C-alpha cells in the first residue's frame, strides 16, 4: 500500500497523527519496550492528557512526538507533514517553530534572566529581535509575570519558573505544545496556576498534549488517553457539560 | 442529618429554614442542598426524643414559625458525638465486587469493567475540578470537601491501575 508522505493519513485537518509507533529502550543488554504500537490522532485545538502508571510509556511517547527521541518503527505526521523521517537538524528547526515543550523540572538556563530565557528560542528561530521582545512582553503579561523579566530562575517560585518555561515554549507560537508532567514538581498552588494558564491557552485554540500521572491534572484536558504497558488502554473524550451540581456527594457522603 | 442539626442548634435556637440556610452556606455548591421537608421531619423526631424543644413564635400576617432549642439531653448528645471517633467504613466498593466476581461468572470481562469505571471516575474528577473553580475560593469548608472528594477519586484511580497491572 502506498502511503502519502506529505499530507498525512486520514482527514487533512489532523494536527498530529501517529501510526504504529514503537520504541524500545536498551540499557546494559536489557530491552524495555516503552511504546508498543501506538496509533493516535489529535485534532487542532484539542487538549489531550496522556496518563497511566509510571513505566507505561507516557514520557517516551511525548518525546517521540516532539522528536526528542526517534521511534524504532511507526510514522508521525505533524500538521500533515511526515516528520519521523526528518534529519536531526531539520527536526531541530521544526521543533523550534512548530513544537513547544515544557518539562517537569522547567529546564531553564540558570545563568540567564527570565527575559533572556524566554526570548532565546525566538532569536534562535531567526525572528527579528524587536518582535521577539514584543512577544515576550505579551507572554509575561498573559502569564502574570510582569516585573520578573530581570530575575534569574532561582529567584522565582516553582510555579513561576514553570510559567517562564511555558512562555519560552510559546514564544514562537507553536502548532503543538507538549508538556511532560508540568506540575510534577509543583505544590498545589503552583499546580493550580499552571493548569489555569494551560486551560487559558487551550481556550484560545492552542493544541496541547500533556503527560501526567495525576488524574486531577488529566481531568482539565478534554480528552484523556490512558497508556498501559506501552499501549493505549483507553481513550476518553469528555462530553461537556458534565454533571456538576454537588458532585462531591457522589464520592463523600456527609448527611444521611 | 440528625446530628448535623443538633450541632447547629448548639450555637443557639433556630427554626427549620435557618438551619437549612446554615447547612447550605457551610458546604456551598459542593454538596446537595438539604431538603426542607426532611429537615422538618428530622426536627419533629428530635423533639419527640427530647433532644430539642420547639416553641411556636407568632408572626404578623404569616403562619407561626417553630423555633427549636437544644435541651440538656441534646447538648449531651452533641458532646458525645464529638467525643466518639468516626469509624464508618471509608470505602463501599461495589465495583470491586464486580471485578472480583467477573471471571467466575464469565458475564463480563475485567478490562472492560476497569475501563468503564475509569471513565466514570475521570468524569467525576472533571466535574469536581469545575466545581472547585465555580465555588467561592474563601469557602474553606466547601473547598476542602471538594479536595477530599478528589483525593478519594485519585486513590480509586490508583487502585484501578493496580488492579489492571495485577489482573492482566
Automatic annotation (TrEMBL), chain B:
<dbReference type="Pfam" id="PF10400">
    <property type="entry name" value="Vir_act_alpha_C"/>
</dbReference>
<dbReference type="InterPro" id="IPR005149">
    <property type="entry name" value="Tscrpt_reg_PadR_N"/>
</dbReference>
<dbReference type="InterPro" id="IPR036390">
    <property type="entry name" value="WH_DNA-bd_sf"/>
</dbReference>
<dbReference type="InterPro" id="IPR036388">
    <property type="entry name" value="WH-like_DNA-bd_sf"/>
</dbReference>
<feature type="domain" description="Transcription regulator PadR N-terminal">
    <location>
        <begin position="5"/>
        <end position="79"/>
    </location>
</feature>
<feature type="domain" description="Transcription regulator PadR C-terminal">
    <location>
        <begin position="91"/>
        <end position="168"/>
    </location>
</feature>
<protein>
    <submittedName>
        <fullName>PadR family transcriptional regulator</fullName>
    </submittedName>
</protein>
<dbReference type="Pfam" id="PF03551">
    <property type="entry name" value="PadR"/>
</dbReference>
<dbReference type="InterPro" id="IPR018309">
    <property type="entry name" value="Tscrpt_reg_PadR_C"/>
</dbReference>
